């Protein structure tokens, strides 16, 4: 009986053939979560609704959506449809963060929505194994979120 159970478990977890593949998967997913967390921390420290957990999950989910098909051998041309679906889906999530008040000028949540969108893009880069691109994009996004508001305040 135990032999059957162990053999079934081994067969179920056979999608990762070796330690190299496990390391690749862990690196991509962990980096996506960490980079998403950094962006989320910045938003949460500003008191915004979409914080660490939201950004981590968005990045991790986007990474998974491209990592799994890539590991299964999906062609690059077909991957573009997966990415298109991610961009569309995240657009709906971001739209839910935008609130229009009484006047046309009083709109809140645009930066949060854009941040969620950027976090998904960083997750896609991680999932596709573009770790350096993901790190550079996250650093630039952090610069936009953390530094640019201070520059704008100085000009006022």
Automatic annotation (TrEMBL):
Subcellular location: Cell inner membrane; Cell membrane
Topology relative to the membrane: Multi-pass membrane protein
Keyword annotations: Cell inner membrane, Cell membrane, Membrane, Transmembrane, Transmembrane helix
Listed InterPro entries: MgtC/SapB/SrpB/YhiD_fam, MgtC_SapB_SrpB_YhiD_N
Entry annotated with the keyword Iron: no
Domain MgtC/SapB/SrpB/YhiD N-terminal positions: 29-151
Pfam families on file: MgtC
Main location, first listed in the record: membrane
Transmembrane segments: 50-69, 81-98, 110-128, 134-152
Family of this protein: Belongs to the MgtC/SapB family.
Protein name, as recorded: Protein MgtC
Organism expressing this protein natively: Roseateles asaccharophilus
């Amino acid at each position: 009986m135990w032999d059957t159970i162990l053999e079934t478990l081994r067969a179920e977890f056979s999608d990762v053939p070796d330690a190299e593949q496990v390391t690749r998967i862990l690196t991509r997913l962990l980096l996506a979560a960490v980079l998403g967390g950094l962006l989320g921390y910045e938003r949460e420290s500003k008191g915004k609704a979409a914080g660490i957990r939201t950004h981590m999950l968005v990045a991790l989910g986007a990474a998974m959506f491209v990592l799994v098909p890539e590991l299964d051998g999906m062609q690059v041309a077909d991957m573009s449809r997966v990415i298109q679906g991610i961009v569309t889906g995240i657009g709906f999530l971001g739209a839910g963060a935008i609130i229009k008040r009484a006047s046309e000028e009083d709109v809140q949540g645009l930066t949060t929505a854009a941040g969620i969108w950027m976090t998904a893009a960083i997750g896609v880069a991680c999932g596709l194994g573009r770790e350096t691109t993901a790190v550079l994009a996250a650093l630039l996004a952090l610069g936009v979120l953390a530094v640019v508001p201070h520059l704008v305040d100085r000009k006022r």
